[in-house]
């Protein structure tokens, strides 16, 4: 009974907060950018399609009991010559519905991409803060390690880490651990950009008055870095994370295409592209075309969102 008179007040406050957010410079910049709106819409549709793949997919492509080899190599929107079934995007050599395999494959690609970027962000932000705030030999070791890693292509670093991690994994657990090893490989190959950007931003922030005041009142180094400096260096980190997500998805697809990524039992978009390219010149173009277009749309949309976010969060462009 006491909450009833307050509900209109709460609704008014919620409406006021929504209006304030809607009228903010960030939201205004988003509404004024057709590319950002379209990219956001594409990303949302693809991510939701992957998340709800078990509900959306018309078939379970990885359940052998539901597969029919007679449906193999069925062209899109054409009835199969033997069973008469029609598939939106056709079927592959095993009779699996390509549309369903794409939905389930995106789940693996997005999971690996998000997890790898999160791992790279945690490592890079932590090392960047430590390097800039502590300095000395700590900074020298961290940044020289980053410089050495930058001399090698990221995909080669990921392949090296993947090979080492998979080599020390017991053979009976390799298929189960392949996805986690893939996340580790991509994450460890992508932390350098986060570390370099956070180090540069921290070098600027640590000499400002609010940090000096925190030192005077006896705050510890960890508290100053986490509670004072970190919130003020997150803007460029978010931009890098958005762009790195697209690169991580492409890296996962590249590794899987080369046969050193996701296992055949849990194929990603890269694995589907590798399977499709085997039939590219035999007339079954759809097995390669649709997974490749999905990967292109996903990576391009995320990249365009990252470009807009970089401009929206840049105070010099406001």
TrEMBL record:
Name by which UniProt lists this protein: ABC transporter permease
One record GO biological process: transmembrane transport
Taxonomic classification: Bacteria, Pseudomonadati, Pseudomonadota, Alphaproteobacteria, Rhodobacterales
Domain of life: Bacteria
Sequence ranges assigned to domain ABC transmembrane type-1 in this UniProt record: 106-306
Any one of the GO CC terms: plasma membrane
Annotated compartments: Cell membrane
Bilayer topology term: Multi-pass membrane protein
Claim: Transmembrane helix is one of the keywords in the record: yes
Keywords noted in UniProt: Cell membrane, Membrane, Transmembrane, Transmembrane helix, Transport
Family in the record: Belongs to the binding-protein-dependent transport system permease family.
Pfam families per record: BPD_transp_1, OppC_N
Transmembrane segments: 35-57, 108-134, 146-165, 177-198, 229-251, 285-309
InterPro entries: BP-dependent_transpt_permease, MetI-like, MetI-like_sf, OppC_N
């Amino acid at each position: 009974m006491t909450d009833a008179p307050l509900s209109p007040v709460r609704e008014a406050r919620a409406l006021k907060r929504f209006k304030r957010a809607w009228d903010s410079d960030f939201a205004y910049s988003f509404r004024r950018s057709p590319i950002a709106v379209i990219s956001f819409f594409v990303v949302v549709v693809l991510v939701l399609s992957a998340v709800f793949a078990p509900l959306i997919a018309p078939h379970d492509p990885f359940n052998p009991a539901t597969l029919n080899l007679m449906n193999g190599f069925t062209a899109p929107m054409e009835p199969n010559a033997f069973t008469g079934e029609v598939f939106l995007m056709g079927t592959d050599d095993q009779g699996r519905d390509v549309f369903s395999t794409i939905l389930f494959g995106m789940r693996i690609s997005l999971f690996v991409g998000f997890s790898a970027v999160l791992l790279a962000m945690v490592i890079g932000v932590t090392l960047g803060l430590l390097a800039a705030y502590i300095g000395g030999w700590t900074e020298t070791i961290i940044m020289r390690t980053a410089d050495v890693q930058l001399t090698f292509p990221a995909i080669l670093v990921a392949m090296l880490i993947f090979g080492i991690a998979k080599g020390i994994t017991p053979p009976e657990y390799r298929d189960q651990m392949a996805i986690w090893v893939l996340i580790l490989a991509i994450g460890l190959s992508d932390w350098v950009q986060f570390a370099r950007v956070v180090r540069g931003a921290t070098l600027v922030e640590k000499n400002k008055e609010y940090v000096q005041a925190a030192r005077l009142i006896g705050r510890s180094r960890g508290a100053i870095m986490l509670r004072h400096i970190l919130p003020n260096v997150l803007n460029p980190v978010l931009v890098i994370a958005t762009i790195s997500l697209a690169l991580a998805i492409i890296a996962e697809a590249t590794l899987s295409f080369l046969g050193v990524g996701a296992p055949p039992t849990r194929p990603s978009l890269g694995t589907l592209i590798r399977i499709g390219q085997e039939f590219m010149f035999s007339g079954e173009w759809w097995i390669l075309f649709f997974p490749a277009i999905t990967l292109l749309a996903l990576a391009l949309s995320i990249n365009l969102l990252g470009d807009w976010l970089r401009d929206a969060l840049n105070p010099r462009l406001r």
